[in-house]
Amino acid sequence: MAKKTRGASEESGSGPNIGGFLGGLSDLVHKLADLAEKGKEFNASGEIPNSQGDKEINAVYGFNVKFGLGKEGEDRIKVEPFGNVVKDKDSGRTVVHEVREPLVDIFEEDDHILVVAETPGIGPKDVKIDIKDDVLTISASKGDKKYHKELLLPRACDKSKMKLSCNNGMLEIKFLN
After folding, report:
1. For residue range 123-143, what is the model confidence (pLDDT) as tens digits?
2. For the chain, what are the domain ranges?
3. pTM above 0.70, yes or no
4. Closest CA to 8 of 17, 56, 16
5. Which one of 1, 30, 32, 83 has the fewest beta carbons within 10 angstroms of its own beta carbon?
6. Positive or negative CA dihedral for 148, 13, 60, 88?
């Protein structure tokens, strides 16, 4: 008989039981609203190991909370999740995917757009970039490390004007004007 733990879901199934962890994140985000007044940035991440039969599943979930001024001086809070823990649209259960979503920042400068993605364990030869108008798709894979992210850029970009570098898992993609 399985032992119940505090905050554990009573769902049965083959996936790891981490619903309580994700359920508490919304409370945390609300409590971080005090940081919004200071215009600071907060991020957190971690790994959730789970052994299931003879297959080990590693769940990675993190979020980046950015506070700043929005349009016309309004305060703005932006929460960007990353990792491989998602809520299944059909069943509503929390599931762990093999492919992780990397943490990504986009910087729009006068002469270029810079996209920075955290992809630990990945080198420049492991990255595949696809761009169609203003939609950038990043895919990377090396061994058991797999990443995928689709981004909406501030404007349409040309792949022929792209420069890519990847050092120590930090992927930088620069689109020149």
Report:
1. 999 999 999 999 999 999 999
2. 16-101, 102-177
3. no
4. 17
5. 1
6. positive
